[in-house]
């Protein structure tokens, strides 16, 4: 799409709005944007109320906050054996950086205006985060964990800082904070993609996990943990983690305890969905196929246990892992809805609730005053059919149109006969 000169203040009008709060406003109105932030939204923002401001009439399309992916791996290639490729490409940091930048751009174009990367090399993901922030390249806002904290032979040891006891755990967190990590990710159990690790067993003792939380929280960092067995979830709960990733094999009593402590889960349901579609691909490593078959129903059962207990769930794709494409939040949201969330709750899991999970409540994921104008303009209404999330007219990031199927051009100098025009109708 062409990039016209942007006015300092402009508006979207004649829209069907959906706020990122499941109980927030949904109805006709507009959004007023100034210096990349939302200064007003709702039925009061209309052509008649904005004076001489430049505006875009979106033709009753849906406008909602940009999507927030709470779990991604931008340096992973989403093919049958992404770990092998990641290990190989770590020897070529420039190639890995280019892959991550391309994956970030794909995620943005599919509506993810913010991505929390929960496991990529520090030397790639942190500079990419900063380059996008500084406008050097285009991609979603990145919340970066960088290296995960794991054991020397544990899950994702090939992209981790290793710790075997509390003193090493403390040093690992301090290293990540010093490197610029926004969040601390801990592998509390083994995982699907690491031969030799055990997804059904914890990797760390409670003392080490408590040390990690103590150091991270003292530095203002949230702590989230990969956990694919109930015992590991219980340890993360006791240690004071802020959230759980996957939550596989979550049992009802543990789910109840999570709800009481307000510890959230990002279930990543789509990992199983995409893998099931291509399970017979001979390129899938045998360790992944075997473990996936053995745990065929555990994640969906755990998700039901979480919902029944009242655990808050947020949307994350685990993109980059086997066959999970970058920017797949539309699929994850549909699966979360099919599993029991209302449509508004499912949308909130990837907007307002997701913003809180990544540590930016009220800053993104909402149409509220003061939030960044990270917005999607959709050609159809997701309240009627969630597949509308894959029919994007415009992606707007911090008030700037950055992607979409429509060519937004409001510069009257480039339009024959358009002198004096101050609006565009999509």
| Helix content bin | 25-40%
Structural class: alpha/beta
- The number of helical runs is 13
The low-pLDDT segments are: 411-421
Q: Between the first and last Cα atoms, what is the distance in angstroms?
A: 13 Å
- Total discrete domains: 2
Silhouette? globular
The CATH architecture of the largest domain is Alpha-Beta Barrel
Question: How would you briefly describe this protein structure?
Answer:
32% of the residues lie in helices and 21% in strands.
Structure description:
This protein has 426 residues and is α/β, with parallel strands linked by helices. Helices cover 32% and strands 21% of the residues. It has helices at 82-89, 93-109, 122-133, 166-179, 206-218, 230-239, 252-261, 270-277, 286-294, 298-309, 329-338, 343-349, 352-357; strands spanning 9-18, 26-34, 37-42, 54-57, 62-65, 67-72, 112-117, 141-144, 148-150, 160-162, 183-187, 222-227, 243-246, 264-266, 375-378, 392-397, 400-403, 423-425. The strands form 4 sheets. Strands 1, 2, 3, 4, 5, 15, 16, 17 and 18 form a 9-stranded mixed β-sheet that branches. The radius of gyration is 22 Å and the shape is globular. The two termini are 13 Å apart.
What topology emerges from the helices and strands here?
Blueprint lengths: L8 E10 L7 E9 L2 E6 L11 E4 L4 E4 L1 E6 L9 H8 L3 H17 L2 E6 L4 H12 L7 E4 L3 E3 L9 E3 L3 H14 L3 E5 L18 H13 L3 E6 L2 H10 L3 E4 L5 H10 L2 E3 L3 H8 L8 H9 L3 H12 L19 H10 L4 H7 L2 H6 L17 E4 L13 E6 L2 E4 L19 E3 L1
Parallel strand pairs: 1-4, 1-5, 4-18, 6-7, 7-8, 9-10, 11-12, 12-13, 13-14
Antiparallel strand pairs: 1-2, 2-3, 5-15, 15-16, 16-17
Helix pairs in contact: 2-3, 4-5, 5-6, 6-7, 7-10, 11-12
């Amino acid at each position: 799409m062409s990039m016209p000169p942007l006015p300092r203040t402009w508006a979207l009008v004649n829209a069907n709005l959906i706020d990122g709060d499941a109980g927030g406003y949904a109805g006709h109105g507009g959004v007023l944007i100034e210096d990349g932030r939302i200064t007003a939204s709702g039925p009061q923002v209309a052509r008649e109320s904005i004076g001489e401001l430049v505006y875009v009439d979106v033709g009753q399309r849906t406008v909602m906050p940009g999507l927030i992916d709470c779990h991604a791996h931008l340096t992973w290639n989403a093919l049958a054996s992404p770990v092998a490729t990641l290990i190989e490409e770590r020897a070529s940091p420039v190639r890995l950086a280019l892959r991550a930048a391309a994956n970030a751009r794909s995620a943005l174009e599919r509506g993810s205006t913010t991505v929390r990367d929960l496991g990529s090399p520090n030397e790639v993901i942190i500079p990419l985060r900063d380059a996008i922030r500084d406008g050097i390249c285009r991609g979603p806002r990145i919340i970066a964990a960088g290296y995960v904290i794991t054991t020397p032979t544990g899950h994702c040891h090939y992209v981790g800082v290793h710790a075997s006891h509390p003193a090493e755990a403390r040093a690992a967190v301090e290293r990540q904070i010093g490197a610029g990590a926004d969040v601390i990710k801990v592998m509390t159990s083994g995982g699907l993609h690491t031969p030799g690790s055990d997804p059904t067993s914890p990797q760390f003792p409670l003392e080490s996990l408590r040390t990690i939380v103590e150091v991270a929280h003292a530095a203002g960092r949230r702590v989230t943990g990969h956990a694919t067995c109930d015992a590991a979830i219980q340890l993360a709960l006791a240690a004071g983690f802020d959230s759980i990733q996957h939550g596989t094999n979550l049992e009802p009593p543990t789910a109840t305890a999570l709800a009481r402590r307000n510890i959230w889960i990002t279930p990543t349901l789509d990992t199983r969905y995409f893998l099931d579609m291509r399970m017979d691909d001979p390129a899938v490593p045998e360790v992944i196929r075997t473990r996936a078959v053995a745990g065929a129903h555990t994640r969906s059962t755990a998700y039901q246990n979480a919902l029944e207990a009242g655990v808050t769930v947020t949307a994350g794709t685990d993109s980059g892992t086997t066959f999970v494409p970058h920017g797949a939040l539309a699929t994850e949201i549909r699966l979360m809805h099919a599993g029991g969330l209302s449509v508004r709750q499912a949308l909130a899991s990837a907007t307002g609730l997701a913003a809180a999970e990544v540590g930016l409540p009220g800053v993104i994921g909402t149409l509220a005053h003061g939030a960044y104008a990270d917005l999607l303009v959709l050609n159809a209404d997701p309240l009627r059919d969630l597949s509308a999330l894959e029919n994007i007219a415009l992606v707007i990031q911090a008030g700037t149109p950055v992607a979409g199927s429509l060519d937004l051009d409001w510069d009257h100098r480039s339009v024959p006969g358009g002198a004096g025009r101050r609006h565009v109708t999509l």
